[in-house]
Amino acid sequence: MMRIWLLCVVCAGILLTAVAAPTAAEDTGALYQAYAIVTGTDMRQRPWGFAQCLREVLVKASGDPRLKDDPRMTGLAAHADQLVTSFDYVDMMAGIPKKDDQGSYDRPHRLTVHFDPARIDSALAELGEKAWRGDRPVVVPVLLVRGRKPPPYILSAEIPAGAEQRGSFIAAASEFGMNVRLPSEAELAAWGIAVDHFPFPKAAPPDQKPGAAPGEAIVVGSLEWNETLPGWIGSWRTRWHGVDHAWGVSGVNYDAAFRDIVRGIVLLASGRGVSD
To answer: What pTM was estimated for this model as a whole?
Structure first.
């Protein structure tokens, strides 16, 4: 129960940030900060937290998700503190009385780390990368979900069955410095999208659905639970600047599935060329 409570608190904070954050190129401050959940506020996990946050920031700032697992990151992450301008902690159990034998030593905290933009850009240059400037598209998923229990549904902004998945998608997008917008039931109806005649995989979506705002990257796909793996199988398609792209993932939880969707759009939008 405690794990579920912490997840709800984190997702609620991300939701408020993601909904309010613009996607304009000029708003770069958020790209140079990240957070990690650590134990306590001492040095036991602070270096690890700094390293995790640095990896995320380099991905967000560059628009290259492949940097997160790049072997060259190991040495850089080990000295992440040299790129930090400030950091702060938030007690994830604030309001819950401390136990006599616990105090604040073993309580989970949200460690938010702010990095120096100039130093991050310099680190990217050393890696042969550069900061991704320019407006970032908002990811608009149009997903048919077939979960462990019927009935299947289209993930929308309102459907009760998709409440946890909406929070997960927003969290996944924030890891890449992106925003996501779940279509409403009314939009899906206007687009003629329904479970009984879902468009995937017959055709990729057009660059813009009727009524869609400019700067939106629409991804059509399916997310299906497979008991044998066990895990989710995801297949997605998008059309970016007139070119169709398809990719997918299998044997993962839906957090990883949503990260795979956003990762593909980031690769395309940042000019990497393919959603590999």
So the answer is: 0.83
